[in-house]
Amino acid sequence: MEYRYEATSVAGFVQMLAANYLAHGYWFFVQGFVPEGKDPRLTDEKLLEKYRIRISRDQRARRKRAGLANVHYLRYGSHFVLLATKGHHPFFAEEAKRIRDARQCPILFAGYSLSVRRGDYLKKHAECGQPVADGKYRVRVQISRERLRLLKAHFLEMALHRRAEVVVQAFWRLPFEPYAPVRRQLLNLLRLVNQSRREAGYERIPTDTLRYRRRIVKPFERLEALASNVGANDRLTA
Hints:
Radius of gyration: 21 Å
Order of helices and strands: HEHHEEHEEEEHHHHH
Distance between the termini: 36 Å
Strand order of the largest sheet: 2-3-1-4
Helix content: 40-55%
Largest sheet: 4 strands, antiparallel
């Protein structure tokens, strides 16, 4: 079976990291960039062969049972990431100085921050019961601190100097899929904007300005298919 690794959109790249790799224990990672002017396929082939990444699902399962690590490779444009599970693998020796753990250091990409954290508290099982701590590791996808800082400065400036419809369009055009932590960040940003506008006597920005449903994309969909589906995707998210 063909091993697919080249994402054709930012949303697809992030979705693969969050739902397919980090969520399944691929916490150890190395990020890199293909040098400008170099054919990325040469880098792809080199890394795929070096770490024997093109193996079947059954082979990965056998390696896991034997205490051996598995490695995946993912690239979007010139940006690539190698991810590994815990265990024995040449990857850990070859990349020792560059390896990061997603539980301690987030993957930063296109303004996103992807990390793995212990879950929050679960709901009470009974009215008088105590909340149960969720000890499982959960993938957290959010806007990076630096990008969020810039967004706050930008939107608070707009809040007092732009018409409501202009601010609405600016929120709608934000290029972030509404994962739960992203939604919370943007709702907090919207509250700050509305607080500033209220104090100045301006019209409030409605909460339905934000998009609350995340698109499920095909990460490796061919570029020409993506182009033909732009209109359909826009209608789905409206």
